[in-house]
């Protein structure tokens, strides 16, 4: 917005609202913020519409998964209907493609959506023209999912023969050429279509700039994360299009709550001997989160909704490292975890912004004296360490290792359709297994009295 150029029109690009879903906290005993967990998804959508009205945008794009399920709940449908009616009063059009969570065909809208709302067909590509003061300002092109899975390359029919207008294409895709479930598609295929100025994508729940301009290709991410897998602040994108078709793209935060994983490595501190020491560390970490600025995805310029939505954090702690306190923690793990959760929540709930502890994982290990000396001097350990480092660095070696893990692990999995009988093996877990192996080897060597 620092630009002096006049903007011709502006719109909001959003996706994956998932109306009808809730925030999946594991314990649900904090009455003050309970409603927030149930209402967060609706409220984030409300924030977005509030912002759209305040910023006087010309239209909103919703790129799939407005609803969480094919069978929409009355509540979700009602919320959506009411927001659309408000947007109509403010002359804001809404363009929608359906995604894998709310494909066309199975169930229709419960309410008669107002005529400012355009839902793209799933049988053929449609092309809507957007006028402002009787002048054509943009063409909006798209096609909806027909069912839960979409294997058709619908974007191949996104044909606009006229580049005298600003052309926007809507697509719900994982952007993976080999993924036949969520619209197989590659970056190259998208940029081949020369008449599209902006690719408004949906499906990936994280804000991502795939291509900055000519054409711009972006994912806005989910407006409100619903579990620990959906970390970072959620929101939508505000796109201002100038007379010369250059764009200003900013991020509009809409989340009420940010999910956060906090790792505490007790080896980083001197003498963590008892619960008091641990409590002090956790409280200080929590305070520092509350003091710190929220990280905006992709370093985008930020415009805030007038509602100033952020209310707090939902936190999962991972306590790891070696220390004397390990034995005490392990002895009565469940009760100690419950005690710490209660202590932290008492401390952090009644704040201007809350920090709600949802769960704590204890991954500590026993302390060894002279550990550093051992690492330096044990020749067996050092040799094994070299092998492990090689595996971590070398893709080929890693692949070989993964092969030997066996069938319990699933390497290529579908995040939207998880096989409950297998363990999803991502890079993080592979590294965890290797590092765990290193720790076990070290412990065994020390216990067996390996000389150093
Ligand atoms: Mn989605």
From TrEMBL:
Assigned keywords, A-Z: Exonuclease, Hydrolase, Nuclease
GO terms, molecular function: exonuclease activity
InterPro entries the record matches: Calcineurin-like_PHP, DNA_Repair-Maintenance_Comp, Metallo-depent_PP-like, Mre11_N, Pesterase_YhaO
Domain Calcineurin-like phosphoesterase: 9-207
Top-rank taxon, per record: Bacteria
One Pfam family named in its UniProt record: Metallophos
Protein name stated in the entry: DNA repair exonuclease
